Amino acid sequence: MTTDPAKRPMNSPHPTQYVYDFDAPPEGTAEERLRLLGGKGGNLVVMSSELGLPVPPGFIVTTSACLAYLGGSWPDGLDTELRAAMDRLGSRVGRGFGDAPDPLLVSVRSGAPVSMPGMMDTILNLGLNDATVAGLARVSGADFAADCLRRFRDGYASVIGSGDVPDDPWQQLRAAIEAVFRSWNSDRARAYRSREHIPDDLGTAVTVQAMVFGNRGKSSGTGVLFTRNPSTGENVLFGDVLFNAQGEDVVAGTHAPSPIAVLDSRMPEVAAELRRNAEVLERHLTDVADIEFTIDDGRLWMLQVRTGKKSPRAAVRMAIEMADDPAFPLTREEAVRRVLPLLADPPRLFARSAHAGAPIARGLPASPGVASGAVVTSSEAAVAAGGRGESVILVRDETSPEDVVGMSKAAGVLTARGGLTSHAAVVARGWGIPAVVGAGSAVLDLNVGERISIDGSSGEVFAGDLAGSWQVAPEAARLLAWARELGIEVVSETTVPAEARSPAPSGQMPDVSRDDVLRALAVKGAVLSEQLAEAVQGDAVPVGSLVGQLVADRLAENAAGQIRLTAQGKLAAAELFTAARSVVGDERAAGLLDEFHVLDGRTKALVTAWQVRDKAGEQVLNDHSDAAYDTQIMSDLATLHADTAAWLAPLAASQRPYSVYLARLSRALDLARAGDQRYVASPRVDSYHSVWFELHEDLIRLSGKKRAEATSG
Prior knowledge:
Helix content is 46%, strand content 17%. The chain is of the alpha+beta class. The longest helix has 28 residues. The two termini are 49 Å apart.
């Protein structure tokens, strides 16, 4: 990548300076610092220099250095700056980098101005070799030193991609920094920037920080917390702490975490300090803070902070309670504007009348809520009715990916077959629409147009409209009242003119072909143009051109704003799968589907466990209030993904559609692990479960089977 020097992030008084200590940042506005130091580095500067919180000392290699490196060479003078910065760091902590008797060890992290998947993971304990590990053992104990060395070597091999770890700590440092720089142009990072409209010329910074150790014994640990419950919004610290562990153990799921409240009894002084720091950070952000910390032999260190992601329910509650607190720096106007998109369609509660009639059928309560409407039995009918503003219940034997568009337009979903792991259940929960599944074949005898009601909380089906009333949730009603008082208009996104919305990503991916689009349409059914572009990993404009060719050849058509194959197009797509099967071989194609079903069983179990928990023998919706539970599921999903990637890799190497599935699954996992819960199973985004279901459909077609004869049970 070639970068114009004029596009470098900021005009510093020292334009050739590439390294800044946390306590000696460059001059400039907060935005300029963000572009130069990255999000992680900028936050560390704020915590250490402005807020006076206990932060392990360190320094930042700027985005300018990254851009210079990507422009063709290691920046002039950077080695000298790194050695000077490391000397300053060593003087502060009383240890020397590479000093055998008592070595300074550091962590190396990426830190782009905008967080994104595909960037380099953290390397801990950098600076260890045979000489320094002996010195560390003399100072801190042999077992501790051996554990740190193992973690360093494992991390280095995983992140750098080489098991050959240099003995020279300075070579280790340079290799780690170069790996961070290169990760800016990783395939996943570039694809993410294209989709999210993030400029390519930002670059990434690198943070180098003195190690503090959570694995030093029972008085040490590491943890992550939110200053308020991110699921419910309750004003209480929410998170986990792992004792005698280092940072990667939090996400690896290899240790059993303890609730953050355990610190109150186990380390009361640390707990009190952590609460004070959390309050400082929340008030600085004027929002819920997501905090990483380490306790090193009873001493608390703050490692990172960012604005925390939260559920819509939590966002509404937090906005009200923060604005109601006269000591909190958030006004009512700011609170309303923060949740304005949620108020366009405020959450509602249904109170069923005591005089409601007896149910006509019962199934499994797959997705909570009550919905009433006329029966429709096809996705196309649901879309058409939705276009007319009618409320309908989509009734199917079971659902498939082709039904997703119809499900999005329906008020509720009712199926004869399926359980809580079924496609209908998972997608409905993701959409947040009521659903009853497995209600029996009798529901297939309902007449089209007949009005029914379903209660997704009880699993009951009723004739006609269910007696009761809908009410805007109290928190949302209060915020709407504030909006009226303040003269703030609540506007639905659908009323915003198309030209006023964010532009489509630019930059064509050259290897998207007409056949790729045809095949994706066969799997997805009716789909919006932007969803199609995402499914083939292409940009909107060239994919739209390919769709235009298919429409001109009468292989595809536009229906109610969505693209779908014609009968002729479905035949053409079937020929593509037949041709692909001839390349793979009939026996191998059938074998791939059988192998997939083994993985599919694990996926269904994980997605269901993410959405529904067992509580006292009953299955209830997972409110994500148990961070340890969710962390374990996310760890299991990462393990499943690694197995899937290894299994799918040979096919992905020879056929582009499967490399696309693998890239989409990787992106969904990255975003889910970064905290966006939608990317586990929500059909509103390109979630892991959504992509997984499409992959299943693709493999069924590749094998030449029908869905009814190719289920995994």
